[in-house]
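In this supplementary section we document a worked example of the pipeline. Step one takes a protein sequence of length 287 as its only input; no multiple sequence alignment statistics are reported here. Step two produces a three-dimensional model, which step three serialises into structure tokens for compact storage. The input and output of this example are shown verbatim.
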Amino acid sequence: MSRGIGFMLISTAAFSLMQLCVKYLSHLPTHELILFRSVISLVLSLGYILPKGINPLGNNRKYLLLRGIFGVTALSLFFITVQNIPLASAVTIQYLSPIFTAIIAIFILGEKMRKVQWLFFLVAFLGIGLLKGFDDRVSLFYLILGILSAFFAGAAYNCIRMVKDTDHPLVVVLYFPMVATPIMLVLSYFNWVSPVGWEWAIILLLGIFTQIGQVFMTTALQLEKANIVASLKYLGSLYALAYGYFLFDETYDWISLVGILLILSGVLLNVGLKSWDKRKALSEKIE
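The serialised model returned by step three reads:
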């Protein structure tokens, strides 16, 4: 397994814990959660970047700024869906992002995809549809917000790939809080709900898990092609399924179990194919 794939697996686990924190804090406004998350990320990122003498503004500032804007938009819409519909459904809808990532990468990055990969994506997408099922707790409004979140996430991932050779991963991560903090600060000023007790600890964990997820995801996207590592995000549906069942009493039928199998199949087939292609290309190059 390549380093890029390994880093993305860590990122997926960290983001799943972040989603769990957001679900527990559903009574707090979305923009307030993003503000806390952004401030923590800002402090952690600058705490590493500045002592290293790395320019926090980066080099490829156009795409860094776009990455920040797209990322903030995607996360804001995602937090809204997590707070208003079942966790597994929200995560499932947002995990359309690898599809958008791959499609956008064709036009922006010129990345090529074999036809069979589309079949693997279709298998995973079908699994997501089965996992979600016909859930009447998901309104059309939140479904649209979830799809838009996935689209903007896909755009953000491609921006990360655009700066892979010019900027440090933590500089890429830093642009999210630099964009989000002033915006969410203004929004929070007009609608503030004070956390109490253990909620502060959960907020701190929210920021830490997000930072871990962002750093490892950014590094993974800079090491591997976007359509490879982005597909691993599908595995997060399994975490959401478990959290929903054990912590939030969200029940699932046998169709959901078939969906899990299809998601795993689609992801593993896609990753396996790309790994085989890389080994084959390396072997031919040596010969």
